[in-house]
Amino acid sequence: MYNRKNWIAVIIVLLGLGIFIPVAQAQRQEHELNFCFVQIANVVHSSPEVTILGFDGKGIIQSTHSNKLFDNFTFHFVGTAKVVDGKMSGHSLSKNMGPDGDFIVWEIFSDSVSGFTAKPIYGTGKWKGIKGESKGKVITAGKPIVQGTSQLCQKWVGWTEVP
């Protein structure tokens, strides 16, 4: 009987101490970013009714948020888009790399009504297990310096969590 009471006391103490063990929680961080880049389009088909194209681009990110999350990241993206009866939709993937070499792969969906929506699908180093969402829109575009290219900047606002 004495052993049983000791075990019960030990279990109660261990359970009581268990509530003080810190549990790792993901920290949600907001971001507000400017993406400026050049992209090259490869038109597969173009007619008044339907345009189909692929694109490839590279650029740099400037954080406009006080936390400077993703500031000075560089990125490379590839994707496809179609315009049917004046309405655009597209899908792309972007590898965004930080100054330390860790990177995040984002999947991006776009259409002429909603703009751009991106979600992280993979991360390395401190970005492993990243979750989040970002919404974007074009804020400026320049006259193409070389035919078949576009130079533009987009504004992205969203959040991420890393475990």
Task: Describe the protein's architecture and organization.
The chain is elongated, with a radius of gyration of 23 Å. It is mainly beta and 163 residues long. It starts with a helix and ends with a strand. It has one domain (26-162): Allene oxide cyclase-like (AOC barrel-like), CATH 2.40.480.10. Strands 1-2-3-4-5-6-7-8 form an eight-stranded antiparallel barrel. The protein has one helix spanning 2-18; strands at residues 27-46, 50-63, 74-84, 87-97, 103-111, 115-123, 131-142, 149-162. Strand 1 and strand 2 (50-63) form a beta hairpin. It contains one helix and eight strands, in the order αββββββββ. The mean pLDDT is 90. 10% of the residues lie in helices and 61% in strands.
Topology (SSEs and partners):
Elements (H helix, E strand, L loop, with lengths): L1 H17 L8 E20 L3 E14 L10 E11 L2 E11 L5 E9 L3 E9 L7 E12 L6 E14 L1
Antiparallel strand pairs: 1-2, 1-8, 2-3, 3-4, 4-5, 5-6, 6-7, 7-8
CATH superfamily: Allene oxide cyclase-like
CATH class, named Mainly Beta
What strand line-up does the widest sheet have?
A: 1-2-3-4-5-6-7-8
Shape: elongated
- Uncertain stretches of 5 or more adjacent residues: none
- Whole-angstrom Rg: 23 Å
- Proportion of residues in extended strands: over 45%
> Care to count the β-strands?
8
State the domain count: 1
The helicity comes to 10-25%
Main sheet: strands, sense, barrel = 8 strands, antiparallel, barrel
The H/E string reads HEEEEEEEE
CATH architecture: Beta Barrel
The third-level CATH topology is AOC barrel-like
Q: Which structural category fits the helices and strands?
A: mainly beta
Our measurement of the CA-to-CA distance between the termini, rounded to an integer number of angstroms, reads 45 Å
Mean pLDDT, to the nearest integer, reads 90
Number of helices: 1
